[in-house]
Structures are given as C-alpha cells and as structure tokens.
Amino acid sequence: MTDVRATGPALTQSRERAAKTGSGYAMLLILLVSLGAGIAALTQIDRIPDAVVVSVVVAASIIFLFVSCGFYLLQPNQAVAITLFGDYQGTDRTTGLRWALPWLIKKKVSVRANNIISERIKVNDLRGNPIEMAAQVVWRVTDTAQALFDVDDYKAFVNVQIEAAVRTIGSRYPYDDFEHQEVTLRGNHEQVGSELRAELIARLHVAGITVDECGFTHLAYAQEIAGAMLRRQQAQAVVAARQTLVEGAVGMVEMALAQLSAKNVVELDDERRAAMVSNLMVVLCGERDTQPVVNAGSLYQ
What class does CATH assign to 114-221? Predict the structure, then answer.
C-alpha cells in the first residue's frame, strides 16, 4: 500500500535586499520648480493665452501631487520595507529625506536595540525542583524582510521565544549543587547566560533577529519550597562550619601535645592524654565560652 500524504508549499525564507529609491532632496527641488511654474503662470494670466495658463497650472499641479506623495523620512537606525501590490521590492536604510514612487507601500521598521525583561515564570530544574526565572534580553532586527514577512508579529514572536528559551535552559541544569560538582543556574551565570543567548539566536533567526546580550534578572526557588531549601542551605552551612572547626581543633590539639612532649613540660599516660584531648576539644569546639577550673591538688587526684 502506498502512503499518500498531502503536502503544502514549502515556506520560502525572505531575504533583505536594497530597494530602488531616490534622494528626497532632488525631488524636493522638482516640487519647488513645479510650484513656482504654476504660480508664475497664474501671475501672467493677462499676458499669455488662457489655454497655455491652464495647461501649465494643470501640469504643475499633477507634478506637485505626484512628487509630494512619494516623500518619506528615515532617522538613524530606521529602515523602510517597500512592497508593490504585495510583492517585496526591497529595503531602504539610507537616512534623511527619501523619495519613492507614490504607489509603493512603505513600512517602517526600527533596527535599534530593544531591551525587554520577561515575566517571571515557574520552571522545573534538572532535579524537578520548581524555580522562578526571569530574563533580560537586548535584541534587534537584522533582516527587515524576515521580520515583516516570515513571522506574523515579530515583537510578539520575540516574547514567546524568550519564554521558551528560559524554560529550556532552566530545565537543563539544577538550581544549585551543594557539593559544587555540577554546572548550576545559580553558580555559573556566565556559562548559563551564554547558552541562553545561543538558544535565543537559534530560535529568532527565522525572524531576522539577533540577540546582543541576555542574562537572568530573577532566579529563586518557588515559594512552596523556598522555606525547605533555605533550611537545607542553613544545615549545609552549619555542617561545613563544624567540619572546618573540628579540623582546626584537631590540628591545635596535636600541636599542643607535640610541644608538651618535645619540651618535657609534663609526662602524660594514655588515660591523662585522652582526658586532656577531651578537655581541649570541648574548649575549642564549644559554642560558649568555657569556665576555667583551677586544680589546686595533684594532677592525679
């Protein structure tokens, strides 16, 4: 059996090209000349035949209307996409006063950098923990034809793709790693930000848009687990502090015993040595200040 499937036309990707337009200053001169000719003809209406005056005025009026309908102004970092009966004719990026045929449709597009901060969204990280994320993205249009004709609304398209990219990156890494052995969202901002930018560039390429800079503006555990994760972080911090304290105390006890033995200050048997180690560890590792007790008798009483 043959599998027959209906296939539609392939999506053709638009490409920006230069439009055939002219300088508006030259056409402004023609506009002024036509206006002057019409006025001059009216002032000479008593000296020349009426038919000549009417012909000059009509011709000057037509030229004036024709030229005046073709002007448009472009500021720096602006572009105009030009179409003729729905057919893309090109893009003009030359700044200043410009002119094109009046029947051409002109659509202005800003190619300036745009800064957007996304909404906070809830994402499950690599370990399934719900976290809240928001990103700041600086983007701009690089291909006006793709931005206008390959997507329906390129600004809305950017917003949707930012959210999708943030979700993708957020689910790719854990929020935090208490053992510091993995790449995490909280601990590797530069690497994660670079991957977010690469993800956005790949997603927005179809719309002729690039990303200059991006990063996370909000990154935290969701409210339902924030308290538990805070207690876990506090417990981890207490354990780490205790471990450091015990390691330092053991080193100090070893040093004290070694110096006492080296200088023959006192001879201790195993039982007294163990008692001294216990007392020193209590003094060094205790959370409160110890109270000294003076032994006025023999060391072995």
Answer: alpha beta
